[in-house]
Structures
1.
Amino acid sequence: MVNMRLAFLGPPGSGKGTQARILAEEKNLAHISTGDVLREAVKNVTELGKKAKSYMDVGSLVPDDIILGMIKEILRKNKKGFIFDGFPRTAAQAKGLENLLDDLGLKLDAAVNLVVSDDEVLRRLLGRFYCEKCGADFNVNTSPPKVEGICDRCGGKLLQRADDREEVITNRLKVHREKTKPVEDFYRSCNLLLDIDGAQDFAKVTASILETVGRNRS
Ligand code: AMP
Protein backbone atom coordinates (compact mmCIF):
# COMPACT_ATOMS: atom_id res chain seq x y z
CA MET A 1 0.00 0.00 0.00
CA VAL A 2 3.06 2.27 0.08
CA ASN A 3 2.08 4.16 -3.05
CA MET A 4 -1.64 4.13 -2.42
CA ARG A 5 -3.48 7.41 -3.00
CA LEU A 6 -6.77 7.78 -1.15
CA ALA A 7 -9.31 10.48 -0.35
CA PHE A 8 -11.44 10.19 2.81
CA LEU A 9 -14.92 11.68 2.44
CA GLY A 10 -17.75 11.81 4.99
CA PRO A 11 -19.47 14.51 7.04
CA PRO A 12 -17.74 16.38 9.87
CA GLY A 13 -17.59 14.05 12.87
CA SER A 14 -17.69 10.87 10.77
CA GLY A 15 -14.29 9.90 12.20
CA LYS A 16 -12.45 10.41 8.92
CA GLY A 17 -9.62 12.37 10.56
CA THR A 18 -8.89 9.73 13.19
CA GLN A 19 -9.28 6.82 10.78
CA ALA A 20 -7.08 8.52 8.16
CA ARG A 21 -4.39 9.11 10.79
CA ILE A 22 -4.41 5.44 11.85
CA LEU A 23 -4.32 4.08 8.30
CA ALA A 24 -1.60 6.54 7.26
CA GLU A 25 0.57 5.47 10.19
CA GLU A 26 0.00 1.77 9.61
CA LYS A 27 0.63 1.92 5.85
CA ASN A 28 3.30 4.60 5.86
CA LEU A 29 1.28 7.10 3.86
CA ALA A 30 1.29 10.90 4.21
CA HIS A 31 -1.82 12.15 6.05
CA ILE A 32 -2.99 15.41 4.52
CA SER A 33 -5.89 17.11 6.29
CA THR A 34 -6.90 20.34 4.55
CA GLY A 35 -8.70 21.41 7.76
CA ASP A 36 -5.45 21.00 9.77
CA VAL A 37 -3.39 22.87 7.16
CA LEU A 38 -5.93 25.72 7.20
CA ARG A 39 -6.17 25.85 11.02
CA GLU A 40 -2.36 26.05 11.24
CA ALA A 41 -2.40 28.89 8.67
CA VAL A 42 -5.06 30.75 10.68
CA LYS A 43 -3.06 30.26 13.90
CA ASN A 44 0.11 31.63 12.26
CA VAL A 45 -1.81 34.47 10.59
CA THR A 46 -0.32 33.70 7.15
CA GLU A 47 -1.79 35.09 3.90
CA LEU A 48 -3.64 31.77 3.43
CA GLY A 49 -4.92 31.93 7.02
CA LYS A 50 -6.19 35.49 6.61
CA LYS A 51 -8.12 34.48 3.48
CA ALA A 52 -9.57 31.29 5.02
CA LYS A 53 -10.59 32.47 8.52
CA SER A 54 -13.89 34.19 7.75
CA TYR A 55 -15.20 31.11 5.91
CA MET A 56 -14.06 28.67 8.59
CA ASP A 57 -15.56 30.69 11.46
CA VAL A 58 -19.07 30.19 10.09
CA GLY A 59 -18.60 26.63 8.81
CA SER A 60 -18.60 27.57 5.11
CA LEU A 61 -16.18 26.16 2.56
CA VAL A 62 -13.00 28.02 1.67
CA PRO A 63 -13.13 28.88 -2.09
CA ASP A 64 -12.00 26.14 -4.51
CA ASP A 65 -9.15 28.18 -6.06
CA ILE A 66 -7.53 28.72 -2.65
CA ILE A 67 -7.85 25.02 -1.78
CA LEU A 68 -6.56 23.79 -5.15
CA GLY A 69 -3.58 26.18 -4.98
CA MET A 70 -2.77 24.73 -1.57
CA ILE A 71 -3.11 21.13 -2.82
CA LYS A 72 -0.85 21.83 -5.81
CA GLU A 73 1.93 22.84 -3.39
CA ILE A 74 1.28 19.81 -1.19
CA LEU A 75 1.35 17.37 -4.14
CA ARG A 76 4.69 18.75 -5.26
CA LYS A 77 6.16 17.37 -2.02
CA ASN A 78 4.11 14.14 -1.79
CA LYS A 79 4.42 12.13 -4.96
CA LYS A 80 4.26 8.80 -3.11
CA GLY A 81 1.28 7.48 -1.18
CA PHE A 82 -1.08 9.79 0.69
CA ILE A 83 -4.48 10.07 2.29
CA PHE A 84 -6.44 13.27 1.77
CA ASP A 85 -8.70 13.93 4.73
CA GLY A 86 -11.53 16.40 4.11
CA PHE A 87 -10.57 16.99 0.48
CA PRO A 88 -12.08 17.10 -2.14
CA ARG A 89 -15.19 18.78 -0.73
CA THR A 90 -16.80 20.02 -3.99
CA ALA A 91 -17.19 18.57 -7.49
CA ALA A 92 -14.87 21.33 -8.77
CA GLN A 93 -12.19 20.27 -6.26
CA ALA A 94 -12.57 16.60 -7.34
CA LYS A 95 -12.11 17.57 -11.00
CA GLY A 96 -9.26 19.93 -10.09
CA LEU A 97 -7.52 17.11 -8.22
CA GLU A 98 -7.89 14.81 -11.22
CA ASN A 99 -6.18 17.44 -13.42
CA LEU A 100 -3.36 18.03 -10.91
CA LEU A 101 -2.73 14.27 -10.63
CA ASP A 102 -2.92 13.85 -14.43
CA ASP A 103 -0.20 16.47 -14.82
CA LEU A 104 1.99 14.39 -12.51
CA GLY A 105 1.09 11.09 -14.24
CA LEU A 106 -0.71 9.88 -11.10
CA LYS A 107 -4.24 8.79 -10.20
CA LEU A 108 -6.42 8.35 -7.14
CA ASP A 109 -6.90 4.69 -6.10
CA ALA A 110 -10.11 5.10 -4.08
CA ALA A 111 -12.42 7.51 -2.26
CA VAL A 112 -13.37 6.10 1.15
CA ASN A 113 -16.78 7.42 2.19
CA LEU A 114 -17.64 7.16 5.90
CA VAL A 115 -21.44 7.10 6.20
CA VAL A 116 -22.87 8.53 9.50
CA SER A 117 -26.31 10.07 10.25
CA ASP A 118 -26.77 13.78 11.14
CA ASP A 119 -27.95 12.93 14.69
CA GLU A 120 -24.85 10.87 15.38
CA VAL A 121 -22.62 13.65 13.96
CA LEU A 122 -24.22 16.19 16.30
CA ARG A 123 -23.82 13.90 19.33
CA ARG A 124 -20.17 13.26 18.53
CA LEU A 125 -19.14 16.84 17.73
CA LEU A 126 -20.85 18.41 20.74
CA GLY A 127 -18.85 15.98 22.91
CA ARG A 128 -15.51 16.69 21.28
CA PHE A 129 -12.71 18.56 23.11
CA TYR A 130 -8.99 19.12 22.55
CA CYS A 131 -6.13 20.15 24.82
CA GLU A 132 -4.99 23.74 24.22
CA LYS A 133 -1.44 22.76 25.25
CA CYS A 134 -0.63 19.36 23.65
CA GLY A 135 -3.51 18.96 21.17
CA ALA A 136 -4.74 15.59 22.57
CA ASP A 137 -8.33 14.76 21.57
CA PHE A 138 -11.10 13.72 23.98
CA ASN A 139 -14.78 12.93 23.60
CA VAL A 140 -17.12 12.95 26.58
CA ASN A 141 -19.12 10.10 24.97
CA THR A 142 -16.33 7.72 24.00
CA SER A 143 -13.01 8.80 25.52
CA PRO A 144 -13.72 11.21 28.42
CA PRO A 145 -10.87 12.83 30.37
CA LYS A 146 -10.37 11.54 33.93
CA VAL A 147 -11.06 15.05 35.30
CA GLU A 148 -13.62 17.19 33.49
CA GLY A 149 -12.02 19.96 31.43
CA ILE A 150 -8.43 18.83 32.11
CA CYS A 151 -6.06 16.95 29.79
CA ASP A 152 -5.02 13.47 31.08
CA ARG A 153 -1.67 13.74 29.34
CA CYS A 154 -0.32 17.16 30.31
CA GLY A 155 -2.87 18.80 32.65
CA GLY A 156 -3.69 21.46 30.01
CA LYS A 157 -7.13 23.03 29.68
CA LEU A 158 -9.62 21.29 27.35
CA LEU A 159 -11.35 23.46 24.77
CA GLN A 160 -14.03 23.01 22.14
CA ARG A 161 -13.19 23.82 18.52
CA ALA A 162 -14.76 27.19 17.55
CA ASP A 163 -16.71 25.45 14.75
CA ASP A 164 -18.06 22.67 17.02
CA ARG A 165 -20.90 24.89 18.32
CA GLU A 166 -24.38 23.60 17.47
CA GLU A 167 -25.34 26.36 14.99
CA VAL A 168 -22.01 26.03 13.16
CA ILE A 169 -22.28 22.21 13.06
CA THR A 170 -25.77 22.52 11.55
CA ASN A 171 -24.33 24.76 8.84
CA ARG A 172 -21.39 22.40 8.23
CA LEU A 173 -23.86 19.52 7.75
CA LYS A 174 -25.93 21.60 5.33
CA VAL A 175 -22.79 22.53 3.37
CA HIS A 176 -21.81 18.86 3.32
CA ARG A 177 -25.20 17.83 1.92
CA GLU A 178 -25.19 20.52 -0.76
CA LYS A 179 -21.55 20.62 -1.83
CA THR A 180 -19.94 17.33 -0.89
CA LYS A 181 -22.66 14.87 -1.92
CA PRO A 182 -21.86 15.63 -5.62
CA VAL A 183 -18.27 14.53 -4.84
CA GLU A 184 -19.64 11.11 -3.83
CA ASP A 185 -21.59 10.96 -7.10
CA PHE A 186 -18.47 11.91 -9.05
CA TYR A 187 -16.38 9.11 -7.52
CA ARG A 188 -19.25 6.62 -7.74
CA SER A 189 -19.47 7.29 -11.47
CA CYS A 190 -15.71 6.55 -11.80
CA ASN A 191 -16.09 3.34 -9.72
CA LEU A 192 -13.76 4.72 -7.06
CA LEU A 193 -16.25 5.19 -4.20
CA LEU A 194 -16.04 2.78 -1.26
CA ASP A 195 -18.93 3.25 1.23
CA ILE A 196 -18.09 2.29 4.83
CA ASP A 197 -20.55 2.26 7.76
CA GLY A 198 -18.97 4.91 10.00
CA ALA A 199 -21.45 4.35 12.85
CA GLN A 200 -19.90 0.97 13.73
CA ASP A 201 -17.60 0.53 16.68
CA PHE A 202 -14.37 2.46 16.05
CA ALA A 203 -12.08 -0.58 15.62
CA LYS A 204 -14.61 -2.20 13.29
CA VAL A 205 -14.55 0.90 11.06
CA THR A 206 -10.73 0.65 10.84
CA ALA A 207 -10.97 -3.08 10.00
CA SER A 208 -13.68 -2.44 7.35
CA ILE A 209 -11.57 0.26 5.70
CA LEU A 210 -8.48 -1.97 5.59
CA GLU A 211 -10.47 -4.91 4.28
CA THR A 212 -12.41 -2.92 1.64
CA VAL A 213 -9.41 -0.91 0.39
CA GLY A 214 -7.27 -4.08 0.27
CA ARG A 215 -9.97 -6.02 -1.61
CA ASN A 216 -10.45 -3.19 -4.06
CA ARG A 217 -6.75 -3.01 -4.75
CA SER A 218 -6.20 -6.70 -5.45
P1 AMP B 1 -12.43 20.07 8.84
O1 AMP B 1 -11.43 20.06 9.95
O2 AMP B 1 -12.07 19.14 7.73
O3 AMP B 1 -13.85 19.88 9.32
O4 AMP B 1 -12.36 21.54 8.19
C1 AMP B 1 -12.65 22.70 8.96
C2 AMP B 1 -13.03 23.85 8.02
O5 AMP B 1 -11.94 24.12 7.12
C3 AMP B 1 -14.23 23.57 7.13
O6 AMP B 1 -15.46 23.84 7.78
C4 AMP B 1 -13.96 24.54 5.97
O7 AMP B 1 -14.27 25.88 6.35
C5 AMP B 1 -12.44 24.46 5.82
N1 AMP B 1 -12.03 23.39 4.87
C6 AMP B 1 -11.32 22.25 5.15
N2 AMP B 1 -11.11 21.52 4.05
C7 AMP B 1 -11.71 22.19 3.03
C8 AMP B 1 -11.87 21.95 1.63
N3 AMP B 1 -11.38 20.84 1.05
N4 AMP B 1 -12.56 22.86 0.90
C9 AMP B 1 -13.06 23.98 1.47
N5 AMP B 1 -12.97 24.27 2.76
C10 AMP B 1 -12.29 23.39 3.56
2.
Amino acid sequence: MNQIDYLRISLIDRCNFRCSYCMPEGEELNYILRQELLTQGELLTLLKEVFIPLGFRKFRLTGGEPLLRPGVVDLIKTIASLPATADLAMTTNGFLLAQMAEELYHAGLRRINISLDSLDPKTFDLIIGNRGKSRWEQTWAGITAAHKVGFDPLKLNVVVIPGFNDGEVLALAALTIERNWHIRFIEFMPIGNHNLFGSCAWIPSEELRQQIRGKWGLIESAVRGNGPADVFKIPGAKGTLGFISQMSECFCDRCNRVRLSADGLLRPCLLNETGEIDLKTSLRSGVSTLELREMVRELLMIKPEINFKQRDAGTVTGVYTRTMSQIGG
Ligand code: SAM
Ligand code: SF4
Protein backbone atom coordinates (compact mmCIF):
# COMPACT_ATOMS: atom_id res chain seq x y z
CA MET A 1 0.00 0.00 0.00
CA ASN A 2 1.16 3.52 -0.78
CA GLN A 3 2.36 5.64 2.11
CA ILE A 4 -0.28 8.37 2.43
CA ASP A 5 1.68 11.28 3.83
CA TYR A 6 0.45 14.24 1.80
CA LEU A 7 -2.39 16.51 2.95
CA ARG A 8 -3.89 19.16 0.71
CA ILE A 9 -5.45 21.81 2.87
CA SER A 10 -8.10 24.16 1.52
CA LEU A 11 -7.91 27.42 3.45
CA ILE A 12 -10.98 29.05 1.95
CA ASP A 13 -13.58 28.26 -0.70
CA ARG A 14 -13.86 31.82 -1.98
CA CYS A 15 -11.87 33.12 -4.91
CA ASN A 16 -11.08 36.37 -6.67
CA PHE A 17 -11.37 34.60 -10.05
CA ARG A 18 -14.30 32.69 -11.42
CA CYS A 19 -12.69 30.21 -13.80
CA SER A 20 -15.22 28.78 -16.20
CA TYR A 21 -14.14 25.19 -15.51
CA CYS A 22 -14.05 25.56 -11.73
CA MET A 23 -16.74 27.99 -10.54
CA PRO A 24 -19.33 28.09 -13.29
CA GLU A 25 -20.88 31.49 -13.75
CA GLY A 26 -24.58 31.80 -13.07
CA GLU A 27 -24.50 28.90 -10.65
CA GLU A 28 -25.13 29.85 -7.05
CA LEU A 29 -22.19 28.68 -5.00
CA ASN A 30 -23.08 28.21 -1.38
CA TYR A 31 -20.01 29.71 0.22
CA ILE A 32 -18.95 28.32 3.55
CA LEU A 33 -20.00 30.67 6.34
CA ARG A 34 -17.12 32.22 8.25
CA GLN A 35 -18.05 30.40 11.46
CA GLU A 36 -17.98 27.09 9.61
CA LEU A 37 -14.38 27.52 8.43
CA LEU A 38 -11.80 25.62 10.45
CA THR A 39 -10.10 28.23 12.60
CA GLN A 40 -6.33 28.52 12.46
CA GLY A 41 -6.20 26.93 15.93
CA GLU A 42 -8.40 24.01 14.88
CA LEU A 43 -6.36 23.44 11.76
CA LEU A 44 -3.11 23.40 13.73
CA THR A 45 -4.61 21.03 16.30
CA LEU A 46 -5.58 18.65 13.50
CA LEU A 47 -2.11 18.86 11.97
CA LYS A 48 -0.18 18.41 15.21
CA GLU A 49 -2.40 15.89 16.94
CA VAL A 50 -4.01 13.94 14.14
CA PHE A 51 -2.18 14.09 10.82
CA ILE A 52 1.47 14.35 11.88
CA PRO A 53 1.22 11.43 14.34
CA LEU A 54 -0.22 9.40 11.45
CA GLY A 55 2.88 10.09 9.35
CA PHE A 56 1.79 13.10 7.27
CA ARG A 57 4.84 15.17 6.32
CA LYS A 58 3.87 17.07 3.16
CA PHE A 59 1.33 19.85 3.14
CA ARG A 60 -0.11 21.98 0.36
CA LEU A 61 -2.25 25.05 0.97
CA THR A 62 -4.93 25.59 -1.62
CA GLY A 63 -8.53 26.72 -1.99
CA GLY A 64 -10.47 28.59 -3.47
CA GLU A 65 -7.74 31.17 -3.48
CA PRO A 66 -5.52 30.55 -0.44
CA LEU A 67 -4.04 34.06 -0.49
CA LEU A 68 -7.50 35.42 0.42
CA ARG A 69 -7.41 33.63 3.76
CA PRO A 70 -6.80 36.15 6.54
CA GLY A 71 -3.66 35.21 8.50
CA VAL A 72 -2.23 33.03 5.73
CA VAL A 73 1.34 34.31 6.29
CA ASP A 74 1.29 33.48 10.02
CA LEU A 75 -0.17 30.08 9.26
CA ILE A 76 2.68 29.37 6.85
CA LYS A 77 5.21 30.44 9.47
CA THR A 78 3.72 28.05 11.99
CA ILE A 79 3.39 25.05 9.67
CA ALA A 80 6.88 25.61 8.21
CA SER A 81 8.35 25.63 11.72
CA LEU A 82 6.81 22.30 12.77
CA PRO A 83 9.69 19.81 12.99
CA ALA A 84 7.61 17.18 11.16
CA THR A 85 7.01 19.36 8.10
CA ALA A 86 9.14 18.02 5.26
CA ASP A 87 7.44 19.94 2.50
CA LEU A 88 5.13 22.96 2.48
CA ALA A 89 3.72 24.19 -0.81
CA MET A 90 0.90 26.34 -2.14
CA THR A 91 -1.32 26.40 -5.22
CA THR A 92 -2.51 29.91 -6.11
CA ASN A 93 -3.93 31.82 -9.05
CA GLY A 94 -1.06 34.30 -8.60
CA PHE A 95 -3.17 37.45 -8.69
CA LEU A 96 -1.97 38.66 -5.26
CA LEU A 97 1.55 37.31 -5.56
CA ALA A 98 3.23 40.46 -6.82
CA GLN A 99 2.60 42.03 -3.41
CA MET A 100 2.86 38.85 -1.31
CA ALA A 101 5.62 36.67 -2.82
CA GLU A 102 8.35 38.08 -0.61
CA GLU A 103 6.53 37.73 2.72
CA LEU A 104 5.40 34.22 1.80
CA TYR A 105 8.99 33.25 1.07
CA HIS A 106 10.23 34.78 4.32
CA ALA A 107 7.47 32.97 6.21
CA GLY A 108 9.01 29.69 5.04
CA LEU A 109 7.05 28.76 1.92
CA ARG A 110 9.45 27.32 -0.67
CA ARG A 111 7.29 25.74 -3.32
CA ILE A 112 4.52 27.32 -5.27
CA ASN A 113 2.28 26.30 -8.16
CA ILE A 114 0.60 29.10 -10.06
CA SER A 115 -2.30 28.58 -12.42
CA LEU A 116 -1.87 30.23 -15.80
CA ASP A 117 -4.14 28.94 -18.51
CA SER A 118 -3.22 31.36 -21.25
CA LEU A 119 -0.52 33.72 -22.46
CA ASP A 120 -3.13 35.75 -24.27
CA PRO A 121 -4.80 38.34 -21.98
CA LYS A 122 -8.15 38.08 -23.78
CA THR A 123 -8.30 34.30 -23.54
CA PHE A 124 -7.07 34.47 -19.96
CA ASP A 125 -9.82 36.91 -18.97
CA LEU A 126 -12.41 34.81 -20.74
CA ILE A 127 -11.31 31.70 -18.84
CA ILE A 128 -11.17 33.40 -15.44
CA GLY A 129 -14.54 35.07 -15.99
CA ASN A 130 -13.17 38.62 -15.86
CA ARG A 131 -15.03 41.38 -17.65
CA GLY A 132 -13.19 44.39 -16.25
CA LYS A 133 -9.61 45.57 -16.72
CA SER A 134 -7.48 42.64 -17.81
CA ARG A 135 -6.05 40.60 -14.95
CA TRP A 136 -3.37 38.89 -17.03
CA GLU A 137 -0.62 41.47 -16.43
CA GLN A 138 -0.98 41.40 -12.66
CA THR A 139 -0.99 37.60 -12.69
CA TRP A 140 2.13 37.55 -14.85
CA ALA A 141 3.72 40.11 -12.49
CA GLY A 142 2.91 37.68 -9.65
CA ILE A 143 4.64 34.85 -11.49
CA THR A 144 7.76 36.90 -12.17
CA ALA A 145 7.79 38.17 -8.55
CA ALA A 146 7.70 34.58 -7.27
CA HIS A 147 10.53 33.68 -9.63
CA LYS A 148 12.61 36.66 -8.50
CA VAL A 149 12.10 35.97 -4.82
CA GLY A 150 13.53 32.48 -5.33
CA PHE A 151 10.62 30.04 -5.42
CA ASP A 152 12.18 26.98 -6.91
CA PRO A 153 10.85 24.99 -8.59
CA LEU A 154 8.31 27.43 -9.96
CA LYS A 155 5.44 25.44 -11.42
CA LEU A 156 2.71 26.73 -13.68
CA ASN A 157 -0.54 24.76 -13.95
CA VAL A 158 -2.48 24.78 -17.20
CA VAL A 159 -5.89 23.14 -17.51
CA VAL A 160 -6.31 22.46 -21.21
CA ILE A 161 -9.85 23.31 -22.32
CA PRO A 162 -10.77 22.48 -25.91
CA GLY A 163 -11.84 25.60 -27.78
CA PHE A 164 -10.27 27.94 -25.22
CA ASN A 165 -6.55 27.39 -24.82
CA ASP A 166 -5.73 24.14 -26.64
CA GLY A 167 -4.12 26.21 -29.40
CA GLU A 168 -1.53 27.53 -26.93
CA VAL A 169 0.10 24.29 -25.89
CA LEU A 170 3.29 24.96 -27.88
CA ALA A 171 3.57 28.58 -26.72
CA LEU A 172 3.17 27.53 -23.10
CA ALA A 173 5.61 24.63 -23.48
CA ALA A 174 8.13 27.05 -25.04
CA LEU A 175 8.33 28.93 -21.71
CA THR A 176 10.47 26.05 -20.40
CA ILE A 177 13.16 26.40 -23.06
CA GLU A 178 14.89 29.43 -21.54
CA ARG A 179 13.50 29.25 -17.99
CA ASN A 180 13.85 26.65 -15.28
CA TRP A 181 10.07 26.52 -14.91
CA HIS A 182 7.82 23.50 -14.83
CA ILE A 183 4.71 23.72 -16.94
CA ARG A 184 2.13 21.14 -15.99
CA PHE A 185 -0.70 20.37 -18.35
CA ILE A 186 -3.75 19.08 -16.48
CA GLU A 187 -6.54 17.14 -18.14
CA PHE A 188 -9.90 18.82 -17.59
CA MET A 189 -11.88 16.85 -15.02
CA PRO A 190 -15.65 16.50 -14.80
CA ILE A 191 -15.85 18.43 -11.59
CA GLY A 192 -17.05 22.01 -11.24
CA ASN A 193 -18.63 22.97 -14.56
CA HIS A 194 -20.55 20.00 -15.90
CA ASN A 195 -22.07 21.94 -18.78
CA LEU A 196 -18.67 23.05 -20.06
CA PHE A 197 -17.26 19.56 -19.57
CA GLY A 198 -20.21 18.05 -21.40
CA SER A 199 -19.86 20.41 -24.35
CA CYS A 200 -16.10 20.31 -24.88
CA ALA A 201 -14.72 17.40 -22.81
CA TRP A 202 -10.98 16.96 -22.39
CA ILE A 203 -7.84 16.32 -24.43
CA PRO A 204 -5.64 13.32 -23.58
CA SER A 205 -2.11 14.28 -22.50
CA GLU A 206 -0.65 12.05 -25.19
CA GLU A 207 -2.16 14.31 -27.86
CA LEU A 208 -0.38 17.30 -26.31
CA ARG A 209 2.87 15.36 -26.14
CA GLN A 210 2.55 14.50 -29.83
CA GLN A 211 2.24 18.19 -30.71
CA ILE A 212 5.33 19.03 -28.66
CA ARG A 213 7.28 16.02 -29.96
CA GLY A 214 6.49 17.08 -33.53
CA LYS A 215 7.92 20.56 -32.93
CA TRP A 216 10.99 20.01 -30.74
CA GLY A 217 11.17 16.36 -29.69
CA LEU A 218 10.45 15.25 -26.12
CA ILE A 219 12.49 13.20 -23.70
CA GLU A 220 11.58 11.72 -20.34
CA SER A 221 12.99 13.82 -17.55
CA ALA A 222 15.11 12.47 -14.75
CA VAL A 223 13.43 15.02 -12.45
CA ARG A 224 10.31 13.58 -10.85
CA GLY A 225 8.10 15.27 -8.29
CA ASN A 226 6.29 13.42 -5.55
CA GLY A 227 2.99 13.98 -7.34
CA PRO A 228 1.09 12.38 -10.19
CA ALA A 229 2.72 14.24 -13.10
CA ASP A 230 4.61 12.35 -15.79
CA VAL A 231 7.61 14.56 -16.41
CA PHE A 232 9.24 15.24 -19.78
CA LYS A 233 11.61 17.77 -21.26
CA ILE A 234 12.20 19.46 -24.58
CA PRO A 235 15.79 18.46 -25.46
CA GLY A 236 18.17 21.16 -24.19
CA ALA A 237 15.42 23.05 -22.31
CA LYS A 238 16.09 24.44 -18.84
CA GLY A 239 12.66 23.53 -17.47
CA THR A 240 10.36 20.54 -17.67
CA LEU A 241 6.87 19.63 -18.83
CA GLY A 242 4.53 17.68 -16.60
CA PHE A 243 1.35 15.94 -17.67
CA ILE A 244 -1.37 15.18 -15.17
CA SER A 245 -3.55 12.63 -16.86
CA GLN A 246 -6.16 11.56 -14.36
CA MET A 247 -8.70 11.04 -17.16
CA SER A 248 -6.62 9.10 -19.69
CA GLU A 249 -4.01 7.38 -17.55
CA CYS A 250 -5.55 6.82 -14.13
CA PHE A 251 -2.92 7.04 -11.40
CA CYS A 252 -5.06 5.97 -8.44
CA ASP A 253 -2.59 3.18 -7.63
CA ARG A 254 0.13 5.68 -6.76
CA CYS A 255 -2.08 8.18 -4.94
CA ASN A 256 -0.43 9.44 -1.75
CA ARG A 257 -2.83 12.22 -0.71
CA VAL A 258 -6.04 13.17 1.02
CA ARG A 259 -7.82 16.52 1.09
CA LEU A 260 -9.09 18.64 3.95
CA SER A 261 -11.74 21.17 2.95
CA ALA A 262 -11.93 24.63 4.50
CA ASP A 263 -14.91 23.47 6.59
CA GLY A 264 -13.06 20.44 7.88
CA LEU A 265 -14.26 17.58 5.69
CA LEU A 266 -11.56 15.02 5.01
CA ARG A 267 -11.92 13.54 1.55
CA PRO A 268 -10.01 10.44 0.47
CA CYS A 269 -10.34 10.94 -3.31
CA LEU A 270 -10.81 14.07 -5.39
CA LEU A 271 -12.99 12.31 -7.95
CA ASN A 272 -15.07 10.11 -5.72
CA GLU A 273 -17.39 11.60 -3.14
CA THR A 274 -17.72 8.59 -0.87
CA GLY A 275 -15.96 8.19 2.43
CA GLU A 276 -15.70 11.83 3.56
CA ILE A 277 -15.50 12.38 7.30
CA ASP A 278 -16.36 15.59 9.13
CA LEU A 279 -13.43 16.38 11.39
CA LYS A 280 -14.55 19.89 12.32
CA THR A 281 -17.96 18.87 13.67
CA SER A 282 -16.37 16.04 15.63
CA LEU A 283 -13.67 18.32 17.01
CA ARG A 284 -16.23 20.98 18.00
CA SER A 285 -18.48 18.43 19.65
CA GLY A 286 -15.68 17.32 21.93
CA VAL A 287 -14.40 14.16 20.24
CA SER A 288 -10.82 13.71 21.47
CA THR A 289 -7.91 14.08 19.06
CA LEU A 290 -7.00 10.47 19.83
CA GLU A 291 -10.40 9.36 18.57
CA LEU A 292 -10.11 11.66 15.55
CA ARG A 293 -6.77 10.05 14.77
CA GLU A 294 -8.49 6.65 14.83
CA MET A 295 -11.21 7.91 12.46
CA VAL A 296 -8.56 9.14 10.03
CA ARG A 297 -6.52 5.96 10.38
CA GLU A 298 -9.61 3.94 9.41
CA LEU A 299 -10.25 6.19 6.43
CA LEU A 300 -6.65 5.71 5.25
CA MET A 301 -7.10 1.94 5.48
CA ILE A 302 -10.08 1.98 3.11
CA LYS A 303 -8.73 4.74 0.85
CA PRO A 304 -7.39 2.32 -1.80
CA GLU A 305 -10.97 1.14 -2.37
CA ILE A 306 -12.27 4.70 -2.80
CA ASN A 307 -10.86 5.93 -6.06
CA PHE A 308 -11.54 7.12 -9.54
CA LYS A 309 -10.42 4.07 -11.41
CA GLN A 310 -13.69 2.26 -10.72
CA ARG A 311 -15.24 4.63 -13.19
CA ASP A 312 -14.62 4.34 -16.90
CA ALA A 313 -11.89 6.89 -17.48
CA GLY A 314 -13.10 9.43 -19.99
CA THR A 315 -16.76 8.53 -19.93
CA VAL A 316 -17.53 9.92 -16.53
CA THR A 317 -20.82 11.67 -16.22
CA GLY A 318 -21.08 11.39 -12.45
CA VAL A 319 -22.22 14.62 -10.85
CA TYR A 320 -20.09 15.98 -8.06
CA THR A 321 -21.84 18.10 -5.50
CA ARG A 322 -18.77 20.19 -4.70
CA THR A 323 -16.57 22.16 -7.10
CA MET A 324 -12.76 22.10 -7.04
CA SER A 325 -12.80 25.45 -5.23
CA GLN A 326 -14.92 23.90 -2.49
CA ILE A 327 -12.94 20.69 -2.13
CA GLY A 328 -9.49 22.24 -2.46
CA GLY A 329 -7.98 21.28 -5.80
N1 SAM B 1 -7.11 29.13 -6.81
C1 SAM B 1 -5.91 28.37 -6.88
C2 SAM B 1 -5.50 28.12 -8.32
O1 SAM B 1 -6.32 28.30 -9.20
O2 SAM B 1 -4.36 27.73 -8.53
C3 SAM B 1 -5.95 27.07 -6.11
C4 SAM B 1 -7.21 26.26 -6.17
S1 SAM B 1 -7.60 25.58 -7.75
C5 SAM B 1 -9.10 24.72 -7.42
C6 SAM B 1 -6.36 24.31 -7.90
C7 SAM B 1 -6.13 23.77 -9.28
O3 SAM B 1 -7.27 23.06 -9.70
C8 SAM B 1 -5.85 24.83 -10.33
O4 SAM B 1 -4.64 24.53 -10.99
C9 SAM B 1 -7.02 24.70 -11.26
O5 SAM B 1 -6.66 25.02 -12.57
C10 SAM B 1 -7.39 23.24 -11.10
N2 SAM B 1 -8.77 22.92 -11.50
C11 SAM B 1 -9.91 23.49 -11.11
N3 SAM B 1 -10.99 22.90 -11.68
C12 SAM B 1 -10.51 21.93 -12.48
C13 SAM B 1 -11.10 20.96 -13.35
N4 SAM B 1 -12.42 20.87 -13.52
N5 SAM B 1 -10.29 20.08 -13.99
C14 SAM B 1 -8.94 20.15 -13.83
N6 SAM B 1 -8.32 21.03 -13.02
C15 SAM B 1 -9.08 21.92 -12.36
FE1 SF4 C 1 -10.40 30.32 -8.33
FE2 SF4 C 1 -8.47 28.54 -8.67
FE3 SF4 C 1 -11.04 27.88 -9.11
FE4 SF4 C 1 -9.87 29.55 -10.78
S1 SF4 C 1 -9.27 27.40 -10.43
S2 SF4 C 1 -11.90 29.83 -9.85
S3 SF4 C 1 -8.50 30.64 -9.48
S4 SF4 C 1 -10.16 28.39 -7.19
